Structures are given as C-alpha cells and as structure tokens.
Amino acid sequence: MFSTKAEYGVRVMVHLAREAGDDAGDGPVPISLGSIADAEGLPLAYLEHLVRRLRNAELVESRRGAHGGYSLARPPAQITMAEVVEALEGEIAPIECITADSEGALVCAREGEAPCPTKLLWTRVQGSIVRTLSEMTLADLILPLPHRVPAPLSPPKETLTA
Amino acid sequence: MFSTKAEYGVRVMVHLAREAGDDAGDGPVPISLGSIADAEGLPLAYLEHLVRRLRNAELVESRRGAHGGYSLARPPAQITMAEVVEALEGEIAPIECITADSEGALVCAREGEAPCPTKLLWTRVQGSIVRTLSEMTLADLILPLPHRVPAPLSPPKETLTA
DNA sequence: TGCGTATCCTAGCTCCGAGGTAGGTATTCG
DNA sequence: CGAATACCTACCTCGGAGCTAGGATACGCA
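YS: structure for the whole thing
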C-alpha cells in the first residue's frame, strides 16, 4: 500500500515537530538527521534521501555545517499529512488509471477509449484517502491523543481477515 | 497503491455481473474466462490466477468442461467491493504496522514496544479505505451511473500534483 | 586556518514481488 | 471420442523498494 518512505518520512516529520527547539531569534534550532536516525532506529543514509523529498516540497528547512540539521518550514498545524505523504510517495492514486489533471480534477487515463468500467470505484477510494490525509495535520500527531475527536473513525464492522 | 490484481479482478467481476446469463433452471449460465479475457483485452493465463482467488473467497462459482465458465456466487448487490479487493490483494493495510486482529479491531503490530507514533494516521487511512470499499457493492458498478449519489465524493480541493 | 560535523549529491547494489508464460491434468458437453 | 473449458504447478523476467558507498560542499569552533 504505502511504502516505508511514507512511514519513515512521517516519523521524521513527527520527530521534528516534537523536538522542535525553541526559536532562538535566528530561526528554530535545527535537529540533525543523525540524532533522528538514532532515536527512531532508522538508517541515516536512507533518511537522507527521504528528507530530500521533504525539502524539495518545502516542508522542512535545513542548515548545513556543524550544529546544522533540519527544522519544519511551517508550524505543524499548517502542514497537512496529504502534503507530507504526497511529497514522499508521489502522487496518490489507488491504481494507474486514476490520476489528477492540472486543475486537480480526477480523470481516468486512457480517456478516449472505453473508460475503465471501474473508474467510479477507484475514484471514490482515491477521494477518501486524500480527504482523510488532508484533514489531518502534523499537529494532530505530536501528542498521543487517545480520543481526541468524538467519533470520526467508526471501526470498520468487518475488517475482512483473509 | 493497488496492483493490477485488483484492477483486473474487479473488471472480471463487473463483467460477470453485466453479462450474467439468465438463470436456466440449473443455475446461471456460466461465462468462460476466455471470452472475458477477449472482451477486456487481458491475458487469459493471468486471469486464471486471479479468478482462483475469487473462487477461494467464494465470490464466484465455476462449472468445468465444455460450455463451462464462471458466475457470481451471490447477487451483485450482496457483494461488497471490500470483499472483492480483499480477496484479490490480501489484507488491506496502508503500511505493515497496521493490521487487524481476529476480532476485526485495528492493532499496531510491534505491540509491546513503543507503538509507532504515527499509528493514528495509518489507522484512519485504513479505516477510510475499508469504509469506502465496504459501502460499495458490485451492483453500484454495473451501470455507468453519472451522478447517482447526491454529494458523497466532494472532489479533493487540492489533489497535490507532484 | 584547519578540523569535525553536518547537509548535499550521484551512483550503484540486492532482493523480492508484480505481472505474466508454459504446460500439463481433470472434467464436461456434443 | 474430441473439443472446450476449468484447474494446478512451476517457472521466468523486470522494475522498483530499500538500502549502502563515497564523495563534495558548507558551517562552527578552537
């Protein structure tokens, strides 16, 4: 479904949000990737690749050199998880057929031919994923909130164990 | 995200639902996989693998021999897309960490250790996917319904083009 | 000024699963 | 019987996930 890119990357973002050093006049104190890799038990060299994507998406900022590191580019509440996952995984589409045009409308690739009969299904799935990710921000993840929202997630009745 | 297994398999199911021969006293007239492969432009040998999963999940029934083939095991309205996708793809989980226990509750693997800080996120995504799939049945896909439901899927404002 | 610590960049490596092929056997109809 | 079909097992190939390696560049500090 999602790869470890999303998992690791989200963990990095959460780590940055939690450990955010106080802003010392000159921007927030950056956190080195090494310390994050250590704390999370993830391979540093691999995280470097992931964090690059986050930087390209302007979700984190970096300071090079000694005592350098990364910090969030915006307050956690202004970073949606859709942005984060998108930056890490690329465009979110349940199957190839569904993609998004320049205006954000969902379209079926192979337009012109017979549109895939199952378009409706994948469109809905895509929509529900993107909506769910868009509704959450980094701020929602920095605290271990047990029951923050009243009843947003009714646990699926049948989870369909294979 | 989802593989072609889901795509092809769903198309087979839709095809079966659409072409469903009249019940001729002795159960519905089965449709050969070959004709489906032809009509959909998909490789027959590969479909055989997929349809096996559908059969194991008791979503289709088969008749062997000449004039044999497959037919739906239940009326389309009683087959949820969650069942279909689950049969084809295996358990639906956005990342490894999230799985479902015997009672259908969502749990984080590596329980006991520090639970993944991002559990809340993946749990919600999983929930929204499963819910969406569970709310649709095969019957919803057999007609090209342009706007059947009033406003179930508000198109995501930003589709986040990479 | 030079050393240590970081980010940055490019290249490559390995392994596994997706996606498909091949070829056989069993079953049923005409 | 023989054609058509489902059923089963084994195999192949290729691309991407998930790393690793090694350097170049930038910054802080003694």
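YS: worth flagging: The CA atoms of residues 108 and 116 of chain B lie 8 Å apart.
IM: good catch. Also The two ends of chain B are 16 Å apart (CA to CA).
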